[in-house]
Structure prediction request, 948 residues.
Amino acid sequence: MPAEDMENRHRWERVFGVNLGYIQDKYEQYLHDPGSVEPELKTLFERWGPPPMVDQDHQPVRDRKRERGAPQISAYQLEKAAAAMQLAQHIRTYGHLEAKIDPLHEGETEHVSLLDPTAYGLTEEDLRALPAAAVWPEAPDRMETAWDALHHLKQVYTESLAYQFTHVHDPEERKWLCRWVETGRAHEPLSSKEKVALLNRLIEVEMFEQFLHRRFVGQKRFSIEGLDALVPMLDELISQGVHSGIEHIMIGMAHRGRLNVLAHVLGKPYELIFSEFHHSPNKDLVPSEGSVGINYGWTGDVKYHLGGKRAIQADNVVRARLTLANNPSHLEFVNPVVEGFTRAAQEERTKRGYPEQDVNKAFAILIHGDAAFPGEGIVAETLNLSQLRGYHTGGTIHIIANNRLGFTTEERDARSTKYASDLAKGFEIPIVHVNADDPEACLAAVRLAYAYRQRFHKDFLIDLIGYRRFGHNEADDPAVTQPKLYAKIKHHPSVRVQYAQALIKAGLVTEEHIEEMENKVVEKLEAAYQRAMQKNKGDTFHLDPPEVLSGSLPDINTSVPLDTLRTINRNLLDWPEGFTVYPKLRRILERRANALADDGKVDWALAEILAFATILHDGIPIRLTGQDTERGTFAHRHLVLHDSKTGESLSPLHVLPEARASFAIHNSPLTETAVLGFEYGYSVFTTDTLVLWEAQYGDFANVAQVIFDQFISAGRAKWGERSNLVVLLPHGYEGQGPEHSSARLERFLQLAAENNWFVANVTKAAQYFHLLRRQALLSGREEERPLVIMTPKSLIRNPRVASFPQALSEGRFHRVLEQTGLGQYPERVERLILCSGKIAVELEEKLEKAEDNMDWLHIVRVEELYPFPKQDIQQIIQRYEGLQEIVWVQEEPRNMGAWRYMEPYLRDVAGEIPVRYIGRPDRSSPAEGLHEAHKKEQERIVQEALRR
Prediction:
């Protein structure tokens, strides 16, 4: 027998009794699945081979040829080995509790019993008697004993970098992370040159803040001081991305440190920033944070909300493009917007089918606040998108800019978890905590984060723990609420000072060298300041008028030849051979075959798919998402079919021969805010794609109100962001109660101004067809803007909504529609009814049953509410000289719906003609909860409108 085998046998003979039985059970488990046993035991089996067999009493079945009296290990020794393995695992799991991650040493635990060998009954002698491999299979050769290995593990897990990986369930990922940390890759030292460059960057960061503090006393800037390392961290992330071939790097962050990031990462000129400060009035005059007056310079928002772009070049070639997203004070709501930017940058949309995604084209960096990360629900919504096929972006690097305070609220009142980062554990995102006063550790964290992203294409989170040198803003005195903390901060040296002293001690720089570096930065700042002041000398403060879009649109032909429509319609029903459409659905879809015949009718769902198909035929990509959007909430769309035998899915638009661009359709998670923000970001970044988001019910848009208020409606006026996003909101009173009736039309009309978007409530399939095509053909043009459509529910299958084929092939979108059969005798018309949406169809149904002569009445449907179709309505009014009244009819309550928006417009065009309202009275709830009450109220409105 070889000497090595003999030695292994001797090792196993030291184990006996129940312990040997346990080892044998584990070995059998190992043979079945090597990855299912503990790493330490796996290593023993690989090195020592199989343990001896045991009998039913757990006694070894002896090989008679072995020497008698071989040494045996006692149960006591095995117990020590097991305890040592448990200690090693606890160091990995709980080392962060004892790590030096807080620069102010606030609330740190000095001693964690879980990391103390004595808590496991272990002494130094016990651990020196065990091999290093018993507790760390990959221990380097220089570590001979478990004592050496445990000392090393404790050192790497409790320094300025602390790790939380045990919530990551994938064994490969967890093993990769631990290996990166334990083998020293996470702690590779910087070169002397890199260290000096890092010091210089810290000098630039701090001197910039100090310069602003001196020159613009009391003005808000939301200083980065205390988290200065954030800038070199971003430098490193960008460098890593550029060197790995990333083409787009997207950054989202709130206002803390934003000016410093704009100046040093985005390259925004100092003088431009100083100019914005120059135009700010005295803080005492306009004390409200975020008001236009306080910091208005050359843009439509305060300076610490502004974004920026930068092209990173090498040899006159653009290597990458860097984007910092504009962000309102709603802190974390930019997160899904940036993810939308990133997904749009990753996708190739020039071929039919789903877009081709390359996650190595772009990646996102999201910088969070420590109070906002656990406090704002949008964070969890966005994290949930990270692994969904319609929304994933191949891994986002998250950084919590953790200054340990939310305005004046301390951690104990801000969250129910130990760390601000704990939310990420639920999504199995690896977490690194790092001390912001250790800039080299901060760069190590960044390198680990990016390497993980590139390896696994998943999110990674860095909790950058620092402090806030001043108050929430520089006009605030934080000592009022945190006197002890700020007494400590006042005497705490900055990271620049600490790192400079460390480099002086290491002999890498001298005090004279540091002074020279500082003087150069100050000279650069002073020169930029003088240029800005000279340029602004004598200027008077004024507000530039916001960009106002024209209400008129270019003449866009949205019709499609009938032959083309018929060909497309046939091809949409030409499913691949062998694909079995669900029989019931097949019968429904096949009815569409004759919809474009001379005597046919096109319903809402078919008009939509024909619009999409012809848009793709024009070479314009489409992205459509929402809750149950593939089928459609009302089982009408069926743009993704499922083979009834195999379950295989297919979209007819993916195999349509006429399609010359991609079609992306995804069911979204049960989330409104994050997915709407994502689609807005997607639509802003790419101007060549028609992007649509559909709410399952229109009122679900309530949850996403911040995205509507701060981004979609105002993004162009504030930041110059252009979007053609289409928002589909099912709306209509069918007696389904308050929550499933109203899409809150009034809110979108209240936000309407400066031609910022279109708001429509259409009642014909052809109108929907032309409206979608118009929106697509406006993509990339100056006139593009978002479109909000109140889409129908019951009307989807109402034959009155269906349109003749000629309306698609020869027609166009009409901002108003006149009721056929009325108004033929202008001199007899006394009442003009204006209405919108479903109530117009109900009025039409009632009119057909009317026995009385209705020559005294005319009805006009306002299909596009905003921009208000003033000219169209004026022309109609002028036609009827005997008008006695103009009536607005709606099914929504008086204080909801379109009335309050329409009233001043109608009174303006009516002149001396009285204007009045018919509908539900003012109410606090949008609709009745009882179906019978709904029916009676609906009947009353229709009867009153048609009663002379």
Q: What stands out?
A: The first helix runs from residue 3 to 12. The CA atoms of residues 296 and 809 lie 50 Å apart. DSSP finds 33 helices and 26 strands in the chain.
